[in-house]
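new request in #modeling-help
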Amino acid sequence: PDLEAKAGAEARNSQLTKPDGSLGRLEEIGIWYASWRGEARPRIAQPQVAVFAGNHGVTARGVSAFPAEVTVQMVANFEHGGAAINQLARNAGAIMSIHPIELDRPTADFTIAPAMSEAECVAALKVGWDAVDQQSDLLVVGEMGIGNTTSAAAIANALFGGTAADWVGRGTGVDDAGLKIKEEVCAAGVALHGGKAPLEILASLGGREVAAMAGGIARARMLRIPVILDGFICCAAAATLEKAVPGALDHCLAGHVSAEAAHPAVLRAIGKEPLLSMGLRLGEGSGAGLAMPLVKAAVECLSGMATFAEAGVSGK
Amino acid sequence: PDLEAKAGAEARNSQLTKPDGSLGRLEEIGIWYASWRGEARPRIAQPQVAVFAGNHGVTARGVSAFPAEVTVQMVANFEHGGAAINQLARNAGAIMSIHPIELDRPTADFTIAPAMSEAECVAALKVGWDAVDQQSDLLVVGEMGIGNTTSAAAIANALFGGTAADWVGRGTGVDDAGLKIKEEVCAAGVALHGGKAPLEILASLGGREVAAMAGGIARARMLRIPVILDGFICCAAAATLEKAVPGALDHCLAGHVSAEAAHPAVLRAIGKEPLLSMGLRLGEGSGAGLAMPLVKAAVECLSGMATFAEAGVSGK
């Protein structure tokens, strides 16, 4: 972050026509945004939502309430504008891009072998890296991948310890039997790959869309583009970066806390306080897309409001 | 609400390309909105923010951290686009109107006499009533009035009981001595007017901008325009309607819970769960304006998403 821009934004914020601190968290968000953009009075003109899709070998184990072909069907739905994230991106004035990644080639079943080889994981990271528009000034990364809450639970379990039951949840809506299977699959994956380094965990237990999200978040850091994190899967992807390089998510804030059981625990583990808590559990970037207008609002207030002196308003 | 439109929206919601319930609270908001608009597939095309301003006799008692002339200065700031609510209304795509009400004639000091006569209160209610654009499809009412957290605290105390200390807070930022004065003023007002009927309490302890907000909310009900309630003062104004006619706020949802100490208690008393909790305590309609994009997002999802059949996506 740019400390000069931060100091400039703080000075400006303290002179705006409002009682000190009365915009609450909007004030810190505005200042945080300014510090990453290197401007004391920034604007958000080109927000971007990038959605990645991948298929998972573990779906053969019965970990999802939906069949694996839904991944490719939902990609078509994204392309035709019919999914929730299409509406939420438009609502936020964001450009949306869709990145299906080798959907006809699911990852390996991670209970048997690494989900991805190193080369496959790097290729997926690069899809995310390349997806970030250099002109963007606010980024959301979203995902679609039947089976990927199991992948995210295994990543979180491997990174943060505990048992599979601590990290597994109902995803799109599995029943009790499905939940039991998810726990067994997660535990088996962690038994096989749990001791590895964070980015190896990403390759071994993640998926192509999960790796792409990590690549997008890392690329945004290089470009000083602030990121709004989405739900459980996005935060599990992001957590591999934070675990590899503490502070790697300083350019990110948490858009929401989802209804997926272990999302609050992942947020605590990466030190993020969510903006929204509205019971979403859809993925696609939906919770982060919903939060985009809040971040825009924070920046509009910081940069658009008049100061006491400009407006001729008496202070205390 | 229109039960046919509600049933139509519920049916549509259940067929959209997402797992059941996965949009959480957005789903209920969309259905609620549809039921008030009488359309199963509504759109929000013309949101409105109406800001009312009034002056308060009790400011002479030293209840505010800011001098009374700030009210008229902030009205000028609203008119020039420099206040927080200007940025937040623009961020939400809302038209904003500003309604200063007899600023050179403050209400009476309510510790001595009713703040407004019945005729004065009716005139202020009518300002709010007339301010609502019949073409609006989502309304926020905001306020500016140095001293009005004291007025709102007295209203809440009179409507809901307890002691002055339960309802008084720091407003724009009074110190401990100022807080003590607010308590005394509130207690004196409630001692004099507390036993009256809800709309008499509005006249006796309210202010012109407070009455105007109540008028706007009531008018929106007649026009079936859903309303997002703002903070402590807006909710105190709204509470007089709810207390007079239970259910009078069924067309309203709570945009946020503010940092003003007694706002959570007023929200509980009127049975509203806030959408946001971001520590705002500014008034002007700011918290409700911040929440407008969330309500728009809910309606966009309900009305814009494809169904499973339309998109050719497999169900469970």
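bot summary: The CA atoms of residues 30 and 302 of chain A lie 6 Å apart.
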